[in-house]
Amino acid sequence: MKNLLLRTITGAIYVALICAAVLLGGWWFIALFSLFTVLALNEFYGLCNAATGGENIITLVFDIAGGLILAIGLGCVNIELLSPLTTRVLGGTFFTVYLLYLVARLVVQLYSQESSPLTNLAYSYMGQMYIALPLGLMSMYYTLPDGATLLLAMFIMIWLSDTGAFLVGSMIGKHKLFPRISPGKTWEGFIGGVIFAVGSAFVFKYCFGAYYENYTIGGLCGLGLVVCVFATWGDLVESLVKRTLGVKDSGNLLPGHGGILDRIDSLLLVIPASLIYLITITLYA
Questions:
Q1: Nearest to residue 35, comparing CAs of 155, 132, 137?
Q2: Alpha-carbon distances of 45 from 6, 115, 229, rounded to whole Å
Q3: Which residues, 6+ apart, have CB-to-CB distance to 137 below 8 Å?
Q4: Residue 223, class by beta-carbon neighbours within 10 Å (0-12 exposed, 13-18 middle, 19+ buried)?
Q5: 4-30 pLDDT, tens per residue?
Q6: What torsion do the CA atoms of 271, 272, 274, 278 make, to the nearest 10 degrees?
Q7: CA dihedral (267, 270, 276, 280) positive or negative
Q8: Taking the mean position of all CA atoms in its chain, how far away is CA 279?
Q9: How far apart are CA 190 and CA 219, in angstroms?
Q10: Does residue 1 carry a pLDDT above 60?
Q11: Where are the alpha helices (DSSP H) in 80-216?
């Protein structure tokens, strides 16, 4: 009972912080998800290098700094914070510094005494692509019509998809979805997640239609489907990483929930997939 209460409180704070940051936008959004980037990268690199006693502190600082530069730089470019000229200069500066990181990381590896330098370098670049890039790209939502409320809808769809999959899977789940990686997931649970995510589109359109004027009900239902499919794959990707490395949770930062990477694993694949979908229907609607 105590653990359930702690889990509920932690989850409520987590959801409240995300909703506030998304709706406030600007530096609030950049600050929260830059923090998520740092925490998630630290967990990821800790997991990947646990067998060798942890990543070298110099390369760890390099990798986290690189991810932070990428996330902040993309946020500054996509969110209207300053004048257009200042934004271009700032964006160009961050991009240049990030290119320097990519080159410097290769050079730094030459001087590392780690037993498997190529593996460690692969882990470093994977963390950038898997975590920092999608979290930075999330700011592109603010360049779309109804961007803030659309981004909030995406988060709610992820949470409802997880809820629907858990409830339906717990009650009637029998057919395994991906037993090799996640034995607990079922096709029934996946379908339940789709129903919850797609069903929320009707609520957004017909109860809060003023915030989604630029999107049809079909477009929002399509978003729900994309979110559910890629949220499931995102969760499976992290399960594959943890199963390969022989760990249960990515960390213990969030009481009752594990690490921050356990909370955002679905998001990491949903962001690029949903952006591709939304940009496509915006351009060709």
A1: 132
A2: 27, 16, 27
A3: 74, 271, 272, 275
A4: buried
A5: 677 778 888 899 999 999 999 999 999
A6: 130
A7: negative
A8: 18
A9: 21
A10: no
A11: 84-110, 117-127, 133-137, 147-172, 187-207
